[in-house]
Amino acid sequence: MRTELKTKAVWRAGVIAVCVFAFAGSTGGQTESLPEETQKPLADSGTSGEANSTGKGGRQLLVVVGAAGEPRYGETFNRWCEQWLVQAAEADIAASSISGMVGDALPKDQLVARLGELAADETLEELWVVLIGHGTFDGKVARFNLAGPDITADEFFDLIGKREKLSVVVNCTSSSSPFISANKNRNCLIATATRDGFEQDFCHFGGFFVDAVVNPDNDLDKDRQVSLLEAFIAAGKATDAFYETEKRLATEHALIEDNGDGLGTPAAWFKGIRLSVDIKDQKPADGLRSNQVFFSRGRVERELSVEQRAERDRLEVEIESLRRRKNRMDEDDYYSQLESVLLQLARLYFPASGPDKQ
């Protein structure tokens, strides 16, 4: 009887997992999605989905273009900036940029004012900040180079670190990794072009990242959208391939940090969307939270309310926690807890006809 019950529980959890992962992606490996016409719309939960991003609320993108130094870099940086702005419009994200003097206002003054304004906006659900240009590091202080006074990593996070809601920072500059350790805000996810402050040459990562963030070929878990993690993995691997093709010594190695440990993880450590290396401590590894964030959201993601999205994220973190503890748990207890969480996740997507109502 015990074996029979366990088999039924495992079967039921497996069926639920297939449904949930096919419609919403997963914290696990790659999956095949169902044809779009077979997907069921979410039932009305009484709360709206994405807020209108043209005003307060919704999502915002700020692209900051630093000092070019040379005309060839300026052309590249401006092209990347324009690409971000176009893609933001297509993704229904309100966007703005800072790239030079406005009247008497220096770029740093504009950046400080704009970040302060965005950080204080409590209605803003999600903020993306992209830094394009060059950076420097003197062994102690990392800076993003602007026309006029530069901004240091600490100054930058003194501003954006005040936000309580989600922020995403993509630092495409040389010497960018010290920005990871300067970030003390657990709700701020960050990707950098370099793995330390002494990688000081021009970085190609930014160009690969802006391409990757909306490229459907990078949808590893087949949930019809590209996550921050998936874009990072694609851009990191494209950067590595560039140096291999050019037969040049790689002078940049990108990192992503989303678990609050201030360390960061390289793209090469991921197999699919899961880490392929063993993490000794019990803290959730980098990659989980960044795989829950999407620049261009798919249909199902857009139909989720802010509250539903937060609950989905919480349940996925719980699933990952269970997986990490599996080898130390009784098998029946593991599957029982996993089934409970998967049922909650299934009800989130199918509230009117959840598995418990079959």
Salient structural properties:
Rossmann fold; globular; 358 residues; alpha/beta; 12 strands; 2 domains; three-stranded antiparallel sheet
* Average predicted confidence as pLDDT: 85
* CATH C-level label of the largest domain: Alpha Beta
Secondary-structure element series: HEHEHEEEEHEHEHHEEEEHHH
Structural class by SSE content: alpha/beta
Say how many strands there are. 12
Strand order of the largest sheet: 2-1-3-7-8-9-10
Q: How would you portray this structure in words?
A:
The protein has helices spanning 2-24, 71-90, 107-120, 153-160, 178-182, 205-212, 228-245, 299-303, 306-325, 331-349, and strands at residues 59-65, 94-98, 126-132, 135-137, 142-144, 151-152, 166-171, 188-192, 255-257, 265-266, 270-271, 274-275. With 358 residues, the chain is of the alpha/beta class. It has a 7-stranded mixed beta sheet, with helices on both faces. It has a 3-stranded antiparallel beta sheet with strand order 4-5-6. α2 runs parallel beside α6 (205-212), α6 (205-212) packs across α7 (228-245) and α9 packs antiparallel against α10. The longest helix has 23 residues, at 2-24. Residues 1-6 and 15-56 have low confidence and may be disordered.
